[in-house]
Request: fold
Amino acid sequence: MKKRLFSCIVLAVWAFGLLNGCKHDPIIVDPFIPNSSWELIQHNIFEPKCVACHSPNSRFAQESDLILNKETGYENLLNRKPFNSAAENEGLWLLRKEGIKSLEESFLWEKINAPNAEHFYQDHPHYGEMMPLGGPFLTNGELAYIKEWIIQGAPKTGWVADDSLLLDHSQVELPQTAAKPLDPPPQGIQFHMGPFRIKPGTERELFYYEPLENEEAIYISGFEISMKIGSHHFLMHRYPGDKPESRVYRDLYRNNGRYVLSTLRQMKDRIYIFGSQYRFADYFYPPGVALKFPANDGIDFNTHYVNFGEEDMIGEAWVNLHTLAKEKVMYEAENLFINNKDFKLPPKKITTISNTHIFEDEVQLILLFSHAHKRNTEFRIYLEGGPRDGELIYFSRDWQHPPMIDFNPPIILKGGTGLRGEAVYSNMTNKTIKFGTSEDDEMMIMSGTIFRN
Reply:
């Protein structure tokens, strides 16, 4: 059962005021107590922040063809196409009841998800403005609550989201086009990569190895990334054997587009740590979980920039590693990197590729995301085996900005069960596409994090 902390707090405060007779100036508390997650969203979020514009006879409601009042708000959202033609042409719905898949297809979510504002404005310039118009935007707690409600099927009745999420009143600041230097972590290490130059009409993939200079093992509890616009991805890897040369940029491609073979060979020996296709990303493991780095280890930073413009582009990135004292570590995190290299995409066809990974022992899954290139149109990950066999737990329709889905509580995968990925590709070229690292090749990678009891 989902916690109903917020409703209980409202009821307790209201009752306290009645019982104590309001001896001084009365505290006016709304006595309305929601009976479901939807009623809470409608009354505590939409009505104070959205209904002023999305009300009958409002010009804004007419422009968006959306009224969000309590009488018809739910029905006006559910199973309706957006009034925005660009969003409709791209297959979005205002809201559907298909779980996690609906989150990626929801125009409502696109319009209110302020942490994703840069992607919204850069990649969807015809979607209009983020909402509420002119701000302030919804709090991170309100967004987390709505997100959980959508993932749980967006029901009109019943409690499916945790009210305690609403206690987070912080709000995101919209990102700028320039890289934003991170504040150094209170306990941890900060790294800086760049600046480096990307010429017009080219792509540049770089590697840069930084030794940690740690005489003893250290434990990483979280990551933060901030990088300049134009990056396709930013990844971090370890090398269990021979290390690359320290603090030297290593290009993957020569000026003629051919591989630098020495760099390509080194990629075979690396172990994935963490990465993102968003310019600003952070992730923290659950309390007591941390990723171990052995003594005298290091990190190889990998960024891939694409410059479609007519002027030089400057790339740059900051990375924070948050550390945890050894005595506070209860479980060691392990990173998943499930890579399918054996596939072909025939020309002029839509092709679905699958890949299954079975765990030998019991693991707890806490993070999952995907990686593919520009011909990928959908990426799904299902549970394989066990009582939840076939359940969809991950969905992406945006290869450039695939979601990072964290599971709290973790998904327990018994030995003999696992993950099955399905990726759909549209290859309308005249050639067969295979696995590769360039923008014209394709990939099918399931990434994430697990830990074991």
